[in-house]
Amino acid sequence: ASKKAHAELDEITELDRGDLHEFGYEHAELKDIMPNLSIFDGCYGTEPQHIDEICKRVTVSHQYARPTSSA
User: Fold this and answer.
1) Burial class (CB in 10 A: 0-12, 13-18, 19+), 2
2) pLDDT tens, 48-62?
3) CA–CA separation, 39 vs 34, rounded Å?
């Protein structure tokens, strides 16, 4: 769930996990757009914490707004 470019990722020495909550909310937004979507996943670098966050976000009511970025 890293937002870094491939060239940046090639240069890092530690895995950039990205923002787990944002990752979950992005999947919840997909579920809102495609209600019949039932398979969610990530790519290499996806860890159990990412999948846990997806599960939390797509199975709860979507009345909760996405948190705003603190950046």
Assistant:
1) middle
2) 999 999 999 888 755
3) 11
CA angle centred on 22, ends 56 and 65, rounded to 5°: 75
Residue 4 neighbours by CB under 8 Å, 6+ apart: 12, 16
* Residue 71 CB partners (closer than 8 Å, separation 6+): none
Convert the pLDDT of each residue in 18-30 to its tens digit. 888 888 888 999 9
Tokens 């937002």, residue located: 3
The CA-CA-CA angle for residues 49, 54, 56, to 5°, reads 95
pTM exceeding the 0.85 threshold for the entire prediction: no
How many distinct helices (H) and strands (E) make up the chain?
3, 0
User: At 66, which amino acid appears?
Assistant: R
